[in-house]
Amino acid sequence: MLDYRDCRSDLDRNGKNTCPLRPHVTILPEEALSEPAVDFVVIGEGEATMAELAAFLMEGKGDLAQIKGIGYKDESGQIKLNTRRELLDPDKLPYPARELFPLEFYEEKWNISTARGGCPFKCPFYSASAIWEGHRRPRSPENIIKEIRFLHEYYGTEYTFFADDLFTVNKKWVRNLLKLIKQLPYQIRWGCSTRVDTVDEQLIEEMADAGCVSIQFGIESGSQRILDSVKGITKEQVVKAITACRDRDIYCSSSFMIPFPQDTKESIRETKEFIKTLRDAGSQIYLSYTSPYPGTYFYEHRDELGIKILTDCWDEFDAKHNIIETKHLTGREIEALVEEIAEYVGLEKRI
């Protein structure tokens, strides 16, 4: 029930993108509606759909069958799924009502969403493609700057995390935002998550000049054979990105997952050595178990990939439990290898 993290220091922990929520009912709406206590589910974005559903339930306005993006049970108990709503214009949405939350309990409270939609790379272990159906709609840099100013001037924030799956997917958009950040009458510090193949030394330097102090990279494996099959990045790109961050005093972290369907003891030990290399180069390390979430390629093709899921409890699909065996590794072997990496690299368990 544990995942592993490099706990050498607290440097800038706000830069973490620890455990993104998985919108279960968007991917498995019929399963959710099969529960007796569930009457409605919202599929996809919730703002406009929830407003229309609330108006129907509380005021009798509208027609349930015409509310885009909901699932429900009709009078006979039959499950109905309405057409999904197109992505909303994120520039027209209000800022999160942070004042309604007990912010004192949140370690990472000043996140800003920079886009609607998911990562376009369609990694086989990531459910964003199923959640967003391949669509993505970024906010304008001008709109983001307005929220940054609001947070700084109303709450006095000095650090913001851009909570996007892939912040640097569009370099032109990033550079437009960086230009506006540098024009602010005060300095801000910020972090983001991205891939090593969507940055280069020049962009990292520009980001640092505009106040970037933390970047989280999804690396996943230290075996080039595995990376070729699930990620499409090279170990050389990883080392270059980590080195560029270190040279510009950007706190960086590298996240890994174990196991992948083609992993063997040998490939995982390659990962062990690569994790040690990156840690020695200055990267924080996150290590978690692979969870084949519903909607992912790993889940939908688990039989042909040789993945055996060991639980039917959704609570354990959290990357902290080992819930699979592969055609090359038993559950016990997987857990033993993770323990071996943790001991070798010096990672600590986190509940």
Question: What does the model show?
Answer:
- The chain folds into 2 domains: 259 residues, TIM Barrel (Alpha-Beta Barrel), CATH 3.20.20; 68 residues, no CATH class.
- 35% of the residues lie in helices and 17% in strands.
- The protein contains 13 helices and 15 strands.
- The longest helix has 16 residues.
Overall pLDDT score: 90
- End-to-end CA span: 7 Å
Q: How many helix segments?
A: 13
Given helix and strand content, the structural type is alpha/beta
Using the 3D structure, state the CATH architecture of the largest domain: Alpha-Beta Barrel
Residues in helices, as a percent range: 25-40%
Biggest sheet descriptor: 8 strands, mixed
CATH fold-level assignment of the largest domain: TIM Barrel
Task: List low-confidence stretches.
Answer: 6-22
The H/E string reads EHHEHEEEEHEHEHEHEHHEHEHHEEHE
How do the strands of the widest beta sheet line up side by side? 5-8-9-10-11-12-1-15
The fourth-level CATH homologous superfamily of the largest domain is Aldolase class I
Strand content: 15-25%
Provide the number of structural domains: 2
User: What is the β-strand count?
Assistant: 15
> For the record, what CATH class of the largest domain applies?
Alpha Beta
Radius of gyration: 21 Å
What would the principal axes of the Cα set say about the shape? globular
What descriptors fit this protein?
13 helices, 351 residues, globular, alpha/beta, 35% helix, 2 domains, TIM Barrel
Short description:
Helix content is 35%, strand content 17%. By secondary structure, it is of the alpha/beta class. It folds into two domains: 259 residues, Alpha-Beta Barrel (TIM Barrel), CATH 3.20.20; 68 residues, no CATH class.
